[in-house]
Specification:
3 copies of one chain form a homotrimer.
Chain A (H helix, E strand, L loop, with lengths): L17 H13 L2 H4 L11 E6 L4 H13 L3 E5 L13 H11 L2 E6 L4 H8 L4 E6 L5 H15 L6 E5 L6 H10 L5 E5 L8 H8 L3 E4 L10 E4 L10 H7 L5 H5 L6 E3 L20 H6 L1 H13 L1
Parallel strand pairs in A: 1-2, 1-3, 3-4, 5-6, 5-8, 6-7, 8-9
Helix pairs in contact in A: 1-6, 1-12, 3-12, 4-5, 6-7, 6-12
């Protein structure tokens, strides 16, 4: 298979084949030393990444900007839509037409679902979705699956438990579609009003085994993927309380010895800090994987 | 003529001679491939541009930052005066004295007329006016005239129609002074309270033919230069309505076949999106010309 | 003495030995041409500085960013905590763990005392305190002492008068500890409620001669170090008025001929602009020294 990603927009993981995901893993592996040894490459010097964060996110922004700079490229960026012409009534189309003359590749984060698709339709250069509303966050799914591959050697045969807000969590949606390519089992646990959207459940159930957990029993998990439940999602504060959960040292003892715990960050209370030093805690390594994976993505897209 | 721009502040187009404008065009032409082939040059590596946007403008900021990076240079920037010491009562003079020790060249955007002049008086390094209140936006005029030169081959003999808010439009003011160097005709149409300031009209009328249009008749135009009319400029909303205009496919049919349509952006409703795909639409090309023109400007100023 | 600073966090000047301060001076001297000739060095190309300004400060931020870029390195930055995950409830610890995978070195400015220490405990890469609340601003003290060394040849034997808000001024606190290494006299003048904290006074009095001035008599000073008194520090506006001071040409005439005047900026009214052109005014040179000193610091820390 030729490089699947060359010159391509990355908007969703929905139709991304297994081989394409594996291509990113294998390329990312070569860039691990960008984190472990802070190594830089003079590979895309003179190239410009436009980092358009209509909705703030230091984490994704820093990860992309570091990836671009470790490849030798440079950045133009905004991190606040209020300072852009969008606040004067300009359309996203006009903004993107302006940006495409400046940059070689665009990453866009926006609060509206479909914004990245709109941008990709407007631009003649590759557009990467850095998160659009409650829809998708495909580069997160690539770094998430890379972390599972890195820690467990393969994804086939794994039981992956997704817990928390599965309805609004775009990282969950992108990860579901990515995992549907592999021979794994997905366990799900969430408050009733925050279940995975039916349309995604239908899509992935054809390809992968999905089990809805009655209670938060993680004893079968190879990978626990925890996400934040925002209190604002509930009308009733008591109900919010009922469904709040904390993974602490005690919960970890009930897991498999070689289970790993992941989280897309930011965390608030979902994982106690006492877990940070346990061997199961994979979330800091996962986060750091954003850099080699995004280097692999940028490198592939820039061709 | 030696390079007119070397080491010079660029505050206004008022006294800029024709040859200096043509120098920028000819240099910009060599940098067109920075847009068409996203080419970068390792010409000013190690140089620093200070991008001081006291008033937000992603478009001008991105254009300057891209130009500097395509030349191999780097950037220090702010895009929000609230995060600067100006909000603690510091003078622009003190801010500029600080910046001049950091950078090789400054671009400043400010809501107050004359701010760029103040900055230039304080700084021992070149200062470029990126727009000061309703006064001037000289680099916009350079890219505007470059676009006319690129699309029409020459400016002499052209009829250029400026429409919209001619009073507060700093791009209009700078363009008027630039065009006064050429043997062209300037047609003007605006609401009565948004006419070109008399002082500018007097200045340019000595050098160039100016015609005030009774109605929005663009049938003689070689270049239609449209600008936005902000509703807030009118006391009476009905009057705002009366003077709002839209250039659509129908309006274009009434223009000369080889007329071009320009706009300094952002647009809101002045030009219908159906016009975007017509051959007369030159505004996206115009916008993209910001990069080679600003590369030419930075290259000249840095010497 | 080997390079004291290699790989080290810079959180405070409290326990920094004299030799370490002198090491920075001597290295900074070699980088003076980064200001005088805007010279850049290709020494740390590929290295990334994370510039984390939870509290805005264009001056310190520009100075660090310029220093890093003049050394060939690049930057990831935020200048407004509201756009970070901290606003979603993330801890500084989690933010720093994220940043450490991106960058080679961190500079942090925060409104809370001790924030830099927290960051250093979380990070495996060097952390530089760019100012934490009313606590410390150690790189400012390094550039301040470098300026005294540059202008007066040595610090031993000097009488240095610190005036203004000595309680809340973190630059004052850092400078006091740095000066305690030298054989100099520190004169102090401040409103009664804005005196130097007793704990700092105790610490430095063991090592250096401290004199509290009854009135603002600067006739013995070799170095006048002026700081701003914020009106908000007083309950009574009349009292604020009583303790406000202005150094003007008249005050300078009463100083020693070869005295120098310093200020950490921003200034509001403490030093009249008529003083700017007098030979005693060292504050613009002091400010510009931020660049070679921070180049020396980054160069030493990066090793």
């Amino acid at each position: 298979m030729a490089d699947y990603w060359a010159g391509r927009d990355i908007l969703s993981t929905r139709d991304v084949p297994r081989e394409a995901i594996e291509q990113i893993w294998h390329k990312a592996k070569k860039y691990d030393d960008a984190v472990t040894h802070k190594k830089s490459y003079d590979k895309h010097s003179g190239k410009v990444l436009a980092s358009l964060f209509f909705e703030p996110s230091t984490r994704t922004q820093f990860s992309f900007q570091t990836a671009m700079q470790r490849l030798g490229g440079s950045i133009i960026a905004f991190s606040d839509a209020d300072t852009t012409s969008v606040s004067k009534g300009e359309t996203v189309y006009d903004t993107i037409r302006m940006v495409e003359s400046c940059a070689d590749v665009i990453v866009i984060r926006h609060s509206l679902e479909g914004a990245a698709r709109l941008a990709a339709d407007a631009a003649s250069i590759p557009v990467i979705n850095g998160g659009d509303g409650a829809n998708q966050h495909p580069t997160q799914a690539l770094l998430d699956t890379y972390t599972m591959f890195q820690k467990k050697g393969k994804l086939d045969g794994l039981t992956i438990s997704m817990i928390g807000d599965l309805k609004n969590g775009r990282t969950i949606h992108s990860l579901c579609y990515a995992l549907a390519n592999f021979d794994c089992t997905i366990e799900m646990w969430s408050p009733p009003q925050l279940k995975l959207p039916q349309i995604i459940l239908n899509d992935i159930s054809e390809k992968v085994k999905v089990v809805e957990l009655e209670s938060l029993d993680l004893s079968n998990s190879d990978v626990v993927y925890a996400t934040r439940i925002q209190k604002e999602r509930f009308d009733d504060p008591e109900e919010a309380e009922r469904y709040s959960y904390v993974i602490d040292a005690e919960s970890v003892r009930k897991m498999k010895d070689d289970a790993i715990i992941m989280h897309p960050f930011p965390r608030v209370d979902e994982i106690a800090t006492e877990v940070d030093s346990l061997p199961q805690a994979a979330y800091f390594a996962q986060e750091a994987n954003g850099i080699p994976v995004r280097m692999a993505i940028l490198d592939s897209v820039l061709g």
